TrEMBL record:
GO terms for biological process: amino acid biosynthetic process; oxoacid metabolic process. This is 3-isopropylmalate dehydratase. It comes from Mycobacteroides franklinii. Residues 79-278, 282-405 form the Aconitase/3-isopropylmalate dehydratase large subunit alpha/beta/alpha domain. The keyword Metal-binding applies. GO terms for molecular function: 4 iron, 4 sulfur cluster binding; hydro-lyase activity; metal ion binding. The keyword Transcription regulation does not apply. It holds the Pfam family Aconitase. It comes from the Bacteria. Keywords: 4Fe-4S, Iron, Iron-sulfur, Lyase, Metal-binding.
């Protein structure tokens, strides 16, 4: 039977020859990732776990600990890792936003299933992985049993053609799709086509991550030479990629001409049906500019920001905060001079954490303020006050706007 990428993976992992839309399948999980917040809230150590080699722990949301509750959670995580022999423990100093750590360490592999409590777990779909955020109780169950269940939803395929323009990022591509097509609740999203080769891995990760914001079940990318090279660089081997059948049945196929895209921005509240090309947005002042998160704190994102900021100065009255997605990204960006460029321009580089993205620490915004962010969400109250406005754009747009003091087309700064 002809299948899409996600259907192929779910069939393999459930031991079935095929699956169809509407089926409920029980699958083996190849990697389960726990994050620090679990250990700070109602953590009950299990009596046993299924396989310590299929489990990882990442300290990411509250690092270094901003509260006493978070500080108490750290010892729980360390004791659990020691008691059960979990070697994939990314403690403070090896830490980072979990999806970045997953990518850096080859934990997300083609054709496999990955589970994590974070809602942006779909980020791993960039690596041809079936990945989806699940609730803490379900993750606890997977940790103990090694399996979980999924409902097979219909799949929408994005057929990419043309080539991505240099000034367009994965964030811009996603914001265009979210504005054009709206929500994808109870749907899977699949990305492929001849234009995919022009989209580098960091942009694919951004797109896959952001698909959580249109409520997609899974977001998966086709396996190609670009992905193969990335995985080789990150010591991933022995996997079995999943490919869609030529006659796979899709709920819809949407053809996207990458050549025609330009920098985009999402207005406050939601990304769905709420975007506009940056060039068409009325002059909008900002108080805070943020570059970071699992979506856009990658090394390439910091490189883009550094190039825009180099030799320039952040506008008076604007706070530019930059959060590398992991300690490894931080160190490499430091070696390459990106952090120096950012700091010299007046930006503040923070520790690697999810803090500012979800309004917890490292950059909470206040009442009446306007923030332009490259993070994952822009709903009311996400990054702090419910009386603040959050716009979303690419790292290039955020950096350019930090210089001008208002939301600006990056092409106006880099031209």
């Amino acid at each position: 039977m002809s299948m899409t990428i996600i259907e192929r993976i779910l069939a393999r992992k459930s031991g079935r020859d095929s699956v169809s839309v509407g089926d409920t399948v029980v699958v083996d999980v190849d990697m389960t990732v726990l994050i620090d917040l679990q250990f700070a809230t109602m953590w009950i150590p299990p009596l046993k776990i299924n396989d310590p080699e299929k489990l990882a722990i990442v300290m990411d949301h509250a690092v270094p600990a901003p509260t006493l509750k978070d500080a108490a959670g750290g010892p729980h995580a360390r004791r659990f890792a020691a008691d059960f022999g979990i070697t994939r423990f990314y403690d403070v100093g090896r830490h980072g936003i979990c999806h970045q750590v997953i990518a850096e360490n080859g934990l997300a592999r083609p054709g496999e299933v990955l589970a994590c409590t974070d809602s942006h777990t779909c980020a791993a779909g960039a690596y041809n992985t079936a990945a989806r955020g699940l609730g803490p109780a379900e993750i606890y169950s997977i940790m103990c049993t090694g399996s979980t269940w999924y409902h097979v939803a219909p799949t929408v395929r994005y057929e990419l053609t043309g080539a991505k323009p240099a000034e367009v990022s994965g964030k811009d591509i996603f914001l265009y799709l979210a504005n054009e097509y709206g929500d994808a609740a109870n749907m899977n999203l699949e990305f492929g086509g001849p234009g995919l080769s022009s989209v580098p891995m960091h942009d694919r990760r951004t797109i896959a991550t952001q698909c959580a914001e249109v409520s997609a079940d899974f977001s998966t990318f086709e396996y190609d030479d670009v992905l193969e090279a990335f995985l080789s660089d990150h010591c991933a081997s022995g996997y079995r990629a999943a490919h869609p059948d030529r006659d796979a049945r899709y709920h819809e196929v949407r053809n996207i001409d990458l050549d025609r895209l330009e920098p985009y921005v999402a207005k406050p509240g939601t990304v769905s049906r709420n975007g506009v090309p940056v060039s068409e947005l009325p002059r909008t002042r900002i108080d805070q500019a943020f570059i970071g998160s699992c979506a856009n704190g990658q090394l390439e994102d910091l490189e883009i920001a550094a190039k825009v900021l180099r030799g320039k100065t952040v506008a008076s009255g604007v706070r530019l905060l930059v959060t590398p997605a992991s300690q490894a990204v931080y160190r490499e960006a430091m070696r390459r001079g990106y952090l120096q460029d950012i700091a010299d321009a007046g930006g503040v580089v923070t520790n690697s954490t999810c803090g500012a993205c979800f309004g917890y620490h490292m950059g909470v915004i206040g009442p009446g303020e306007v923030c332009l962010t490259s993070s994952t969400r822009n709903f009311t109250g996400r990054m702090g006050s419910t009386e603040a406005d959050i716009y979303m754009a690419s790292p290039a747009t955020v950096a350019a706007s930090a210089i001008s003091g208002y939301i600006s087309d990056p092409r106006s700064v880099t031209a």
